[in-house]
Specification:
Length: 429
């Protein structure tokens, strides 16, 4: 353990460059944590570490920060929740930004955030695997640099997983899918209805994405069919000019979650009427309880329900099978369809690269429920897996940065390694 001892000393004390490169750029020692992902969660952790003087690197597979927002969202997207619930720690939205920022305004905000805290992620670098090496008490993180096809191994004391709840698209398998022949995309590749004018489009999935894609299609003269295979809670975005989300957050300070759910359902029925009648059956469990137990986000209605009521959007049940230019549904109906948009959701990609099973479960989320899913063993941290959107990500980030900052401070106080120590250590790997 001589190696570990001296490495730890080096980690604790070195104040020079963030990392040094070894073995012809293959093996890199990182002095401080490695943050995986430069979305809002990764940026928020990075900001907290900057404030505490902890050096770090951020590895990002895409060529920009917040790639979900910049490259995998539709044009008309705005935040659903008021801006005060979506801002990251220590840097509020400017006053001129409206209550519900547009996608571009949110991206600008995140760019300013990264600039303000001087966060410079390493882009085009995808983490392929990360494993804790018991023999030396350090993490080994292997990446693929897409620009030069080079593989790099980072060695570090701490790893912060910030790859998000929406890292990969979910594409279900359907019987006869290959026979269909029309174009099929996932909602993450949908930009606008421009390419769908005059077409019959089947939108599969009635989460916030499917609902909004259907609405967008109406504005481009196409005919959307919305596939609702089970149930969904549709809530008004605002009640009497006040954000429903804000109202719920306020009520939760005074009454139980179940009572808030009852109030939300009353308000939904008062404002939207009976959604069941139009094929949007409500789940047995209330909207907040369902979000907490299954992570299923309620839909905040932006006008889709009105289009369903008026018949511009037709609700169809679950899919039985696809055939050439046709789709058969479980109720026996068969429709001619030109194109399909799969708004079937996303999943975490953590199980594909993190070799660890104590803290993360098989679905790529921490096992411990909120607010305890941010710290694992041996220097493993996570931010942004709370199923509580950006506000949950911020809460995680504050805790992670505080914890690493504390350890960093204690260790830098105690140890002073010999100047040439790290080279000697690394060469032993
Ligand atoms: C369409 C849409 C709208 C949303 N709107 C809202 C909203 O209004 N309010 C709200 O609170 N939440 C919203 N959300 C939830 C969303 O999860 C958060 O807004 C936010 O993006 C989460 O940030 P994150 O950093 O945790 O994850 P992400 O934003 O997904 O960032 C993760 C980053 O990690 C990178 N990455 C992934 N795997 C690797 C790897 N192996 N190696 C290197 N890098 C990797 C990705 O490229 C990505 O840049 C929305 C989600 C979607 C899909
Ligand atoms: N402006 C905003 O704030 C927005 C926020 N978001 C957020 O992004 C996240 C992802 O949302 P979203 O992309 O809508 O994904 P969701 O996971 O919320 O919804 C996926 C939908 O696809 C359905 N589905 C999955 N498989 C099938 C299948 N085989 N056949 C039929 N239906 C199927 C699901 O139905 P079932 O329930 O039966 O499984 C569900 O309705 C959420 O947290 C959401 O809140 C998204 C858009 C806008
Ligand atoms: O995206 C999520 O999962 C969130 O928790 C944030 C969010 C976005 N749109 C919403 C609608 C209702 C409740 C939460 C959200």
């Amino acid at each position: 353990m001589d190696t570990v001892g001296s490495l730890r000393g080096f980690i604790a004390k070195t104040t020079s460059a963030n990392h040094e490169e070894f073995f012809a750029r293959r093996c890199v020692w990182v002095n401080g944590p490695v943050i995986v992902g430069a979305g809002p969660s990764g940026l928020a952790v990075a900001a907290g570490l900057k404030e505490r003087g902890v050096p770090f690197i951020v590895l990002e597979r895409a060529n920009c920060i917040a790639s979900l927002w910049q490259t995998r969202t539709y044009n008309r997207l705005k935040l659903h929740l008021p801006k005060q619930f979506c801002q990251l720690p220590k840097f509020p939205f400017p006053d001129h930004v409206p209550e519900y920022p547009s996608k571009d305004q949110f991206i600008n905000y995140l760019e300013s955030y990264a600039n303000h805290f001087d966060i410079q992620p390493q882009f085009n670098e995808s983490v392929q695997s990360a494993e804790y090496d018991e023999t030396c008490g350090l993490w080994r993180i292997k990446t693929d640099q897409s620009a030069n096809h080079r593989e790099v191994e980072y060695i570090c004391r701490w790893i912060v997983v910030a790859t998000g709840e929406n890292a990969e698209k979910v594409v279900p398998k359907f019987f006869g899918f290959h026979e269909f022949g029309g174009d099929i995309i996932h909602a993450c590749d949908y930009k606008s209805g421009e390419n769908y004018r005059g077409k019959k489009v089947l939108v599969v999935g009635c989460g916030n994405s499917g609902m909004e894609v259907s609405l967008d299609l109406c504005n481009y003269d196409s005919t959307p069919y919305l596939c609702v295979r089970s149930s969904v809670h549709v809530l008004p975005k605002e009640v009497l000019g006040k954000s429903t989300y804000e109202l719920a957050a306020l009520l939760l300070k005074w009454v139980s979650l179940r009572t808030v759910d009852k109030i939300l359902l009353f308000l939904a029925s008062w404002s939207l009427g009976n959604t069941d009648k139009y094929g949007l059956k409500r789940p047995e469990v209330g909207p907040l309880e369902l979000k907490n137990t299954e992570g299923k986000t309620p839909v905040l209605d932006l006008g889709t329900f009105g289009k369903i009521k008026s018949g511009q959007i037709k609700v169809v049940p679950g899919i039985k099978r696809f055939a050439r230019g046709k789709v058969a549904f479980v109720n026996g109906e068969i429709l001619e369809i030109d194109s399909v948009v799969l708004a079937t959701g996303y999943r975490s990609n953590v199980p594909s690269w993190l070799k660890e099973s104590e803290f993360f479960s098989k679905n790529g989320f921490p096992k411990a429920p909120f607010p305890n899913g941010w710290k694992g063993n041996a220097g493993l941290y996570a931010a942004g897996f709370t199923r509580r959107g950006l506000s949950g990500a911020s809460e995680d980030a504050i805790r992670v940065a505080e914890d690493i900052g504390k350890i960093w401070k204690e260790e830098t106080k105690q140890q002073k390694p010999p100047a040439a120590c790290h080279r000697r250590c690394i060469s032993q790997f």
